[in-house]
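Quick review question:
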């Protein structure tokens, strides 16, 4: 089986649950949804959690997308990168900044605010925790809820990348 062949194919439209239909009407019939929709109970729990982080969280869109794109890079998740690249642009990231997310932290002139979010993503990727130095910087900028959310957001997108990569979810043909 090649990397271009999904390990689990997206659910055919005539088998979609009401929730999957509603999600597809709102966000589009994305393969991430139609693949995970094969497990209706898990999909129902996951979509609520993921939607909260993506659309109703306390973090600003720029911080959120920096964290997600850095995580997509760390996990080599082309699907996640592709979708969040567009969201990153919508959140105010430039093409140059998005390209720099694939580089070392010192290889781009990040602002202190951007740098600390990226350092948190890097720490969690490499060490499974956030260093005391990075935490101190973050705690000077974010409140308690935002700190919790940032760590959960990064962890969530690691999990999503694991699933997308392992299930070999393919990009939509129209994109």
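Suggested answer, residue by residue:
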């Amino acid at each position: 089986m090649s990397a271009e062949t999904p390990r689990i194919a997206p659910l055919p439209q005539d088998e979609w649950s009401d929730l999957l239909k509603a999600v597809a009407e709102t966000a589009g019939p994305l393969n991430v949804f139609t693949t995970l929709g094969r497990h209706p109970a898990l999909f129902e729990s996951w979509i609520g959690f993921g939607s909260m982080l993506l659309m109703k969280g306390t973090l600003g869109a720029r911080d959120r997308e920096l964290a997600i794109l850095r995580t997509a890079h760390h996990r080599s998740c082309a699907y996640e990168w592709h979708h969040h690249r567009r969201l990153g642009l919508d959140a105010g990231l430039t093409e140059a900044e998005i390209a720099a997310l694939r580089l070392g932290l010192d290889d781009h002139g990040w602002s202190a605010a951007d740098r600390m979010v990226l350092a948190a993503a890097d720490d969690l990727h490499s060490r499974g925790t956030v260093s005391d130095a990075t935490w101190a910087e973050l705690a000077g900028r974010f409140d308690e809820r935002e700190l919790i959310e940032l760590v959960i957001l990064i962890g969530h997108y690691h999990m999503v990348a694991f699933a997308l990569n392992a299930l070999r979810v393919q990009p939509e043909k129209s994109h």
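Why it works: The mean pLDDT is 96. The chain has two domains: 13-55, 61-167.
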